[in-house]
Structure formats: C-alpha cells, structure tokens
Amino acid sequence: MSATSGRPSIKQFAFLSAGGLILLLPTAIAFFSGGFFAEARAWGLIAAWAAFLVVAVTAPQPLPRQRPGQLLLGGLALLALLTVLELGRTPAEAAAVDDLQRLLLYLPFTAAAIATFGSTRLQRWTSPALLTGTVVVCGYGLLGRLVPSLVSQTINPQADGRLDQPVTYWNAMGIIAAMGIILAVYLAADQSRTRRVNIVAAAAIPWLAATLALTVSRGAIAAAVTGVLVLIIASRSTAALRTAVLAGFVVAAAALATFPLHAFRDPSAGLTPRIAQGLLMTVVLVVLSIIAVRVQRRLATISDVELRVAAVRLLIAATAITVLSGFLLAFSSATTTNQISIKSSGGSPSRLVSARSSRGAYWDVALRSFRANPALGRGPASFRVEWLRERPFPEAARDAHSLYIETAAELGLLGLLALLLVFSGVILAAVRACSANRAAAAGPVAIMAAWALHAGLDWDWEMPAVSLIALACAAYLCALPASAGSGRRD
Fold first, then answer.
1. How does DSSP assign 69-102, residue by residue?
2. Residue 354 burial class via C-beta count within 10 angstroms: exposed 0-12, middle 13-18, buried 19 and up
3. What angle, 0 to 180 degrees and rounded to 10, lies between the N-to-C axes of helices 359-372 and 383-390?
4. Is the pLDDT reported for residue 333 higher than 60?
5. What's the total number of domains in the chain?
6. DSSP 8-state code for residue 338
7. Cβ 209 vs Cβ 255: under 8 Å
8. Same domain, 381 and 303
9. I want to staple 170 with a disulfide (CB 3.0 to 4.6 A). Which of 26, 70, 164, 208 is the partner?
C-alpha cells in the first residue's frame, strides 16, 4: 500500500493504526516480563491477530507476493504445524503449548508487519520507532539505578546484581540494549535522515551502553560488536564507519564509568551511596551525550586526521571519566556511614573476562537427544525433561540456550528445515533490500545479524520482547524492495 497525499481515508487510517500497533507491541510486552509468561503472551497474541485481521480487511494484498516474505512466513507456519502435530508425543505438553502460543504470536505479527511496512508512511518510522522502544525499555531499567529514590524496582536474587528490569532477564536486557546501540549508530550515521534524528540517535548511545554494561552480558556485547561491523559492511558508508568509531569510544567510556561505582551496580547496597553514585553516573551520561552529539555533527565534514584527533580526545575523556569516578567513589565511601558490600558476583565486571558457562553442558545434552531422534526430535519443549534425565550437575534448565540446537533436539530435521526456510527468507530479503536501497536496509540487516548470533547463545526465541524486534526488522527487509525509493525518509 502506497502513501497518498492529503488526509488518509478511514480504511488507510485503520491500516496505518495496525502498523503502529505492530511497532508498539515489542516495547509494550517488554514491561510484562518480556512476554515470557502465558498471560502477557496471550495479550500479545490478541494484539497481533487484531492487527493482522485489520490488515486482511484493509490491504489489497495482506500476504506477501515476493519470495522472501513467503519463505519467512512459511517457515514460521511450518514450525507451528510441527508443534501442533507433536503435542501428543512430547513429555512436556504444557510447556509445548507455550511454544505453540509464541509461534501463534510471531506468525500474525510478522505477516502484518510485512504488509504494513510496505507503506512509506510507516516505513520511514520503523527504525526510529524500534530505537525509541529500546530506549524506553532500557531507560526504565537504568532509572532504577540512576534515581533509586524515585524509581523502585524488584530485586531479582537470580540476577545477582545484573540489570534485568523490566524484562526480568539480564541477557535479554543485554541484547535489547545491543540492538538499540546498533539502531542508534545506524540512524546517527544515515545522512538521508533529518539532523534531528541524527542528533537524538547519537545522544541515546551512552544510555544504551550503560544499560548493556550493567547486564554484564557477554553474548550481548558480542552481538553488538557483530551488528555494528555488519552495519559498516552492509552500508558501505564512510559515515557509518566514522559513527561506529565514535560510538565505540562513547560505549567504552560509559561502560568504564560504571566499573568503580559498586553501589550503582549493586541494587542491594545502601540507599545513600546508591543515590550519590546514581547522580554521578547521570552527570557522566549527560556529558557523554553532549560529546557524542557535538562530534556527530562534525562527522560529515571531518577529515581523517581530525577523526584520529577526535578519537584520541574521546579516549582521554573516557580515561578522565573513569579516574574521576574512582576519586568521587573514594570520597563518597569515606564520608558515608553506610557499608557497601562489594563481592564478586554475576554483576561484577570481572565476569566479562571469564569463560565459565553451563551452555556447553546444555548443548551436549540437546545434541545427544537429536542424535537419538534425528527425524522428529523428542517433541516440543522436551529439552527440560532430557536435561533432568541426563544433566551432569544439579542445575535447573528449561532451555538449551540456543535456538538452533534446541530446535534440532525437539523438532528434529523437519524443525531445522523450518528454521532454514525462515532464515532463507531473511537472507534473500536482505540481499534484495540492499540492492534496492542499501541505506535503508543496512540497519535492519545489522539487527538481524546480531539477533541471529545471540539466538544461538541464549533463549531469545522464548522472549517475545527480543524476538519481535528481530521479526519486525525481517519484515521490513521483506517489504522494502516492493516500495524502495529515494529521498528523505523522515
């Protein structure tokens, strides 16, 4: 559906509203434990199907005509069909119903997104809307650390100090922050965007970086780096490269500034030091945002020599911020009667240099299950049962922490075929979209690369707040070639 000039008709308004609902859903569901539990998924499912039904009535072609979209939706439909057919043989029927519910959310969401994102009125706002959503989610989580006296959040003992609110899982918060950083770099560098979009995107980078640092998520950090590298390659833009360099120093400065602020990192510390260090970190982030905006405004005209000078200045600023934070921390510790317990925990930065993880054991059990039943697997949600039977140590685990390995174990080769269809559609869409409009496609392509990596390391598929962002980007790529054009997009 193409945008028309003037006021939209009632039919067009309903169509655009359905697209707006699709863009809003990932952010809304994040505030309900990321959509992990049944009630939140049910409401998300209702919203997705409502959007799709509106699209079915108002769009001339509600289902995609092009091969990438057909492959993507076909793969999701096949996963849902396999899950239904396997319900009778799974050893964990209730959990398998949860899997089916997620797929019945993802399928109409993706179909409605492909149809509505073909509209240039929605297409131009897709990436800014997704960035805004990540900033809102990460901003809420960060506010609990910056202003703990005003924003009180639940302390999850399992998080062990890592930032997990509002999604309630630190690694999910980490990948949301990582995708936000990628989108911010993409929009800050995109010279076809308005100056206002460039500036706001650059200003968001330090806040997203602080969120990522507080999750101490190694996989999310790797996904962020991967996504930015893919963005540079896909865009083939000097502006993207320069903005990525700027972002690298800003992200490092924001992350380093959090390291010595132990009370800021520990939500169980005394309120007085948390307030003091939260205020200090707020000042640091504001300063970094100002620096990012000022440097970003000059990137279009800055020479390579000036770029190197700016990089040195940013490095000096990052070092100064870290040293200043240390001195102020020492001062606040000496003047407060509250004792801050500093322990080596999941929230400690030392975790970033550790390779310890239970994933190898999860994957080994899942792969043995696949080898025993390669055709159909053990059934949806069966990994948790296999883990209880085969686990080498007494630790609870409901997911194999890898979309690909878990699909193989639970749905066998047919499940892997369905995933292959999904990713074939995404890859084909990415190739076509880059050929049609490289500047518009580079950001969503980078998001998909980051998500695909992280989904192989964690249970992103079970967190709709994470996977809906990726599916929205996949749908955008499927829709882009049909309506590609030139000119400003905001």
1. HHHHHHHHHHHHHHHHHHTTT-S-HHHHHHHHHH
2. exposed
3. 110
4. no
5. 2
6. P
7. yes
8. no
9. 164
Residue range 380-406, pLDDT digits in tens: 999 999 999 999 998 889 999 999 999
Cβ-in-10-Å burial (0-12, 13-18, 19+) of 153 comes to middle
Per-residue pLDDT at 191: 87
Domain presence at residue 1: no
Residue 148: which residues within 8 A CB-CB, separation 6 or more? 267, 271, 274, 275, 278
- Closest Cα to residue 275, out of 327, 338, 324? 338
**Do the domain assignments include residue 407?**
yes
| pTM higher than the cut 0.85 | yes
Q: Does one domain contain both 297 and 365? A: no
Secondary structure element (H or E) that encloses residue 46, with its range: helix 38-58
pLDDT in tens, 224-270: 999 999 999 999 988 898 899 889 989 999 999 998 899 999 998 99
- Give 26-50 pLDDT, tens digit per residue: 999 999 999 999 999 999 999 999 9
Do both 411 and 315 map to the same domain?
no
Give ∠ CA 127-435-188 in degrees, rounded to 5.
Answer: 30
Classify residue 151: in a domain, yes or no: no
Whether residues 188 and 307 fall in one domain: yes
What is the pLDDT, as a whole number, of residue 356?
74
Measured CA to CA in angstroms, residue 189 lies from 50, 90, 290 at distances of 35, 48, 16
Give the pLDDT score at 9. 87
Give dist(CA 412, CA 407) in Å, integer.
7
- Cis bond upstream, residue 166 (ω within 30): yes
Written as one string, the DSSP assignment of 441-486 is HHHHHHHHHHHHHHHTTS-GGG-HHHHHHHHHHHHHHHHGGGG---
Please give the residue range of the domain that contains residue 97: 15-116+360-490
Mapped onto helix, strand or coil, the DSSP state of residue 320 is helix
Average confidence score pLDDT of the chain: 89
Q: Which of 336, 369, 397 is the last residue of a domain?
A: 336
**Residue 298 binned pLDDT confidence (cut-offs 50, 70, 90):** confident
Same domain, 318 and 367: no
Last residue of a domain, one of 282, 302, 336: 336
Residue whose C-alpha is closest to residue 403's, from 126, 103, 58, 37: 103
